[in-house]
User: Fold these one by one.
Assistant:
Number 1:
Amino acid sequence: MAEAQRRFIDYIMELKLRCRFEEEIGEGCRLAPREVSCLSALSPGESVSARELAGRVGLSPSRASRLIMGLRTKGMILEAFDEKDRRAVSIRLTPSGERLIQRIEAKKNECEKRLLSAFNREQLRVVRDGLATLSLAFEGGAHETVRDN
């Protein structure tokens, strides 16, 4: 397909195939890519509900629940049940999970450094602005901005 005829979705699909960040991290830590995403959505010291975590990583509550169970079994997260409502679960990283987050962040920095080295300052600005707009479009909040440009 000629570059001028490529659709946005084709670029997105290609980028998704080429970016193997979660797989690379997961292989070294014996985690599935979705588990890496789930852990990456948590900050050290933060406590979130299972539903909020599911929303952050774009998963159904039932799929997120299975991931949470696996991460708990691997010692990466802790769950605390609300005494008033046993259905409400609060999730936070364990010390092992926090150490893994540090490794994930270091790997993300290394990956980003490699990517950024391919662009000059103006290209970086254009790419960053484009990615921000694309991210908003996925959230449904940039329809006017995207159409106006």
Number 2:
Amino acid sequence: MKLHLGSGKNVKEGYINIDKYVDFPGVEKLDIFNLPYADDSADEILSEHLVEHIGFKDEERFWRECARILKPGGKLVTETPDMEWLCKQFLEAEDSFKEFYKVGAKDHYFGNGRSVEQRWGMITTHFFGNQNGDGQFHYNGYTKQKLIRIADMIGLKDCTVVKIFNKGAQALVASMVK
């Protein structure tokens, strides 16, 4: 069994696609903190830009729930904005606030479009989420070391973290094995 947590409308074939906030064909609305699967039952868990949407008080519950349902040898893959890169980029970027954010507007980002050369644009939305609806707020941040430490704390091993550029900013992709 392969799970895609926080799938949104990005339905992946061969996965059980799960998202609390999306009503879309092929997507199940389930509680990611209390998944209806037996211990040691999942071969793979994928989450792409989900963990930053989980608040501090629920963070441990989420990671431990993933570890609970993974089979021995199962893999957890998560992609999340690179908080270290975002902080550095924000401080180096031009401080040019042009317009108030337009909710629902595609690629508006405070009038700066998708530029990462401006503080008030794509960078800001990676800190706080795009805030275009329920579930679209960021409450948490991750670095390479934090992801490696979390893997250790929840009993996963072989954690590798690579940096990629996706969704308009640098992201981390962590792969962990139970």
Number 3:
Amino acid sequence: MFRRMAFGWAVLGWLLALPVLPGHGFGERRVVPDTPFYFDNHYFDRYPEAVVVGVVNGDTLVAQIEGEQKLRLIRLAGIQGLSPQEDPFYQQALELMRERILRRTVKLEGDKLLRNVDATGLVEAYVWLEGQQMNAMLVRNGLARIAPYTHNIKYDSYFRGLEKRARQERLGIWSRL
């Protein structure tokens, strides 16, 4: 009996002594290689930080992602920005994005279920600033539509609820209905 217990403790001690792979803890920083494959299906499993250096339109921004040398286009996942023909709401969305996130550090969240398989160029992500998701903020204020069944589907039902509420309250583009 004593032998079995001693063996169990030895195995437990050995398992606890195994090195933990770096970068797999929640919220732990990881060194990000300067490669377009950083955002592939295997590595986009955490929240990398990025500094927003430009806003292209209501749902696309230019960012410098931690550890990467090149600037990247980041498209807000799950939503469809307004077209310039939908003025003044297009301008409001643009101003909101510029006011809130231009030259600020944001966190990017990739979808755990499905992601953009194109590892180069445009990245689809949920953009978080100080605990608020910019994607949801635009939909809630009627400054973007949901784009269901895109590569990122994690928040689709949440966005549908926000869009429904914006329609009911006639906010943004829904004020014209």
